[in-house]
Amino acid sequence: MLSEKKPKINIRHAVTGDLEFITELEASCFPPSEAADRESFRKRLSVYPDHFWLLEENGRVVSMINGLVTDIPVLQDIMFEDADYHKENGDWQMIFGVATHPDFQGEGYASLIMERVISDAIKQDRRGIVLTCKDKLLSFYERFGFINEGISKSEHGGALWYDMRLTF
């Protein structure tokens, strides 16, 4: 009887050498109007690399979550571009994006990496996590305890977003 080899999963923080993979993954998951570009990721990685979580399957980056930390309780569009809003000891972990490569979606990787981000935010004594999402993802985040606070003021990418908050 042949056994199926279980994939090796590793979650780690990003380093500058991951820049190309991160940029490509983002582009494969978001429309151009919403995807961060290489320069934006370079700035983010230079300021808050410990707030980039990468999930690897057998050494290949297949999923990521990134965002800054701040005392501002609502995710604002300017935060996507201005890394100066990051405050390492801030109360709120912002999530800018949850991205899983299309070839690996539906395998539970986004849930695994989200559980890690939540665990890390709790260990870091944050008040909680804040993100925006589209209506089709509301139930995904609600499974982790996020509360839908209604339609966001965000105009990012011209999409309709909902403010979501997980308070610890």
Describe the structure.
The protein is of the alpha+beta class. It has one domain: Gcn5-related N-acetyltransferase (GNAT) (Aminopeptidase, 3-Layer(aba) Sandwich), CATH 3.40.630.30. The protein has five helices and nine strands. The protein has a five-stranded mixed beta sheet. α1 packs across α2. The N and C termini lie far apart (47 Å). The mean pLDDT is 95.
- CATH third-tier fold name: Aminopeptidase
The whole-angstrom Rg is: 15 Å
The CATH superfamily is Gcn5-related N-acetyltransferase (GNAT)
Terminal Cα span = 47 Å
Indicate how many domains the architecture comprises. Answer: 1
**CATH C-level category:** Alpha Beta
Counted by DSSP, the helix tally is 5
Query: What would the principal axes of the Cα set say about the shape?
Result: globular
In CATH, the architecture is 3-Layer(aba) Sandwich
Major beta sheet, strand line-up: 4-5-7-9-8
Beta strand count:
9
Q: Could you report the average pLDDT, rounded to the nearest whole number? A: 95
Strand % is 25-35%
Structural class: alpha+beta
SSE succession: EHHEEEHEEHEHEE
Helix content: 25-40%
Largest sheet: 5 strands, mixed
Q: Which consecutive residue ranges, at least 5 long each, have pLDDT under 50? A: none
